[in-house]
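Researcher: Here's a chain I'd like modeled. Treat it as a single chain, no partners, no ligands.
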Amino acid sequence: MRCALMTTLGIVVFAGSALAQPSLPSTFRARTVASPEGASIFVRSGGSGPVVVLLHGYAETSDSWGPLATALAKSYTVVVPDLRGIGRSSRPAGGYDKKTQAADIRAVVTTLGYDRTSVASHDIGIMVAYAYAARYPDKVERLVVMDAPLPGIAPWDDIVRNPALWHFSFRGPDAERLVRGRERIYLDRIWNAFTGDPGKPDEATRNFYAAQYAQPGAMRAGFAHFGAFSQDAEDNRVFQRTRLTMPVLAIGGEKSFGAIQAVVMRNVASDVREAVVPGAGHWLMEESPRATVALIETFLMDRTPPSATVSRPADERRVTPSEFKFSEGSGAGTGTSGVSGIRTVVLKGDPDRAGLYTIMLQVPAHTRIASHDHQDDRVATVIMGTWFLGYGEAFDPALLKALPPGSFYTEPANRAHFAETRDEPVIVQITGMGPSSTRFVDLATDPRRSP
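Model: Modeled as a single isolated chain. Structure tokens:
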């Protein structure tokens, strides 16, 4: 999985200068709006036409929207606030749950004299945008969400098990002390972990955002956005009872959320269009501004009635057994044991990347797999043959259970297990939430190790 973008100055072109810091158009007007929820929200706006609100995410400020704001301002009124606690907005002690922040955004919209708007969002911004659309559904014409999960909405529980998301739980006075004066080091880790291009964000952009987050109280406020996730999850489960009906565009970076973004939104909305930005990681405005802006502009201009667009998901697939293309060779592959002779086929997703995946393993007769585990939580079904599976730190025949075709079993994250086939080959189908991995309890039994 991966996190957000934005703040002030200069002018941004799609190609972007390597030395230019992120900024909104210089013609945008700035003001501060007092939210009834106890925050002062800094907002800039410009352009003319239908209103579009842009909500940024973490590790950035509203300036990250420079490429999109510049393009949209030709035909739309663009409203770009800094979220509570970030950039030039105030940093109150509380109110970082996304339901409260939705009220902040509503105050911005109405104070500026607007009512119904479209909303585009990224990273933590999509959590605020979803809460806004759920609280004020008649005030949102179209909703764009980009590359982030929603707390409490499937597959949230699987996503947060990803070790790369340790920063979701990193907060408190000691965490603040650890990063004080080292904000750039902390943020570099987030930018680097979720980019599809090691050069993005560039140096000027990183220095700009690091300076913003080094302001007094800024890291505390940033951490508070994550600290509110448990409350957000409770609120979202209530919001989920009433599905969003406005058109929703779910965009994922190919090397980040990808098609999973649409999977998330189909759990809360009835009219979801799906888009994946090729080659991009999480930082879409930094890595692929042209492609991302084009997707959003096309979506905002599309006036197709919702009933005409609620069709099959773009990633639907129907495959018969004769169409499976099993790998040839060693059997090695992410999410597998790597035992020689095992053949695999990836049916959906990619076990190397964040998101849902399904693989099928064809295991020869008389194969033994030593005790090992995987970092992701997985479920499996036996398709053909009788599979013998056990749980434990060492292979123990006494703990094996015979699982005939149709049997179901689980491979909990980091839970050691072992298996074998006997006089017949076996096919098993496994589904997990990537990225996956395989770790053998006893390294000497790892078939992938060098002699």
